[in-house]
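Box 3.1 A note on notation
Throughout this textbook, protein chains are presented in two layers. The first layer is the amino acid sequence; the second is a token string describing backbone geometry. Keep the layers aligned when reading.
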Amino acid sequence: MAGIGETIAAIATAIIPKQGSVGIVRLSGENAVTIAHALFRAPGNQTWESHRILYGYVRVPQSRQVIDEALLLVMLAPRSYTREDVVEFHCHGGIMAVQQVLQLCLEQGARLAQPGEFTLRAFLNGRLDLTQAESIADLVGAQSPQAAQTALAGLQGKLAQPIRQLRITCLDLLAEVEARIDFEEDLPPLNETEIQAQLENLLAEATQILATADRGELLRSGLKVAIVGRPNVGKSSLLNAWSRSDRAIVTDLPGTTRDVVESQLVVGGIPVQVLDTAGIRETDDRVEKIGVERSRSAARSADLILLAIDAQVGWTDADQEIYQQVQHRPIILLANKIDLVRTPIAPLNCPSEITRIVKTAAPLSQGIEDLEHAILEAAHAGELQAANLDLAINQRQAAALTRAKASLQQVQETIAHQLPLDFWTIDLRSAIQALGEILGEDVTESVLDRIFSRFCIGK
């Protein structure tokens, strides 16, 4: 882990050539203000006070060459993001201005920040617990309003509070048991019935929190959905109707789509990456053959398959061949072009394993709502829209909470087998340690490095 006493610097905004309007260079550490004084000239009688915005120029100290006209924001410890002295240069956007300002900061003795190092310092200095720090990364990477809402709730401590309460209860139980070990003659016997009831409550609460892990994973990473099927069954028309755009070329000619076309959607709060694939068939066309192989590859990597067929002709041998290639994934059957069927739709005669069937008419956007509902059901997330999104743990937190739950269950078994109180304390301490790992109160340096390495530089 890098030295906390050093002053660090980084570009804290996305750099978009010729498009970004503002770029921020951020410093944190004991020399941040000194570096700002060396580089920034604030004309007039502007006061260098905490949480004031200064207007002026960034200059090269030696030559006094002006690099940029900028604003300077000074936030003195402890009233800053890191609880250290923090300085931000708000420069013009683009590439050159912020890169030159950053280089000047480094020449004045600052060190380039590592990924997530500003947030790491906020954690180490006690401003954030580890669940809040991880929520910041989730908020930055949120792909839907619901994901952002959940991350913001975590940042506000709504995940830490129940975990912290579980840990406090375990500590109280441990204190009760150890008191009986040390002062057995001076205290009344433990009320095992009451302790069993407390353990049941702890386990119920842990189980309830663990149940949010799948929901959290869906909100963070989303679903990859591939639309596959024979040529000319309307896959591209479905994508265009669903995404309300013309992402894919649509004609009456089979084999129009030669490559995988992607679209990003949000369904019931879940980010969904939709892949419109080339029609899967045997062909001698070299370009189409490459597209077909990419379609098969996309299907193999997808979380969910939308198998589109032509409702006018029903299930065919070609559909059966495609189904055999994708049946390793959850499947929703799309009976498309129902608007062109003039007689009642005959039984599709599809395999009985396919239980989710949606009828669609892409040009009319008919069946899109039913399709989204089926996707939520297939993802076991049909309750997501109406659910309380204030709590959604990640994989690291779920693993630690699972260990805590197992330790509490072991305490129950210890009591049931009437083992000595010393055995109770072993598993209670294990539960307390695991819960502490979630909050960052009992965590190793290697775990911190792994968590914060996933952050962007400058955050």
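The first helix runs from residue 32 to 39. The first strand starts at residue 8 and ends at 11.
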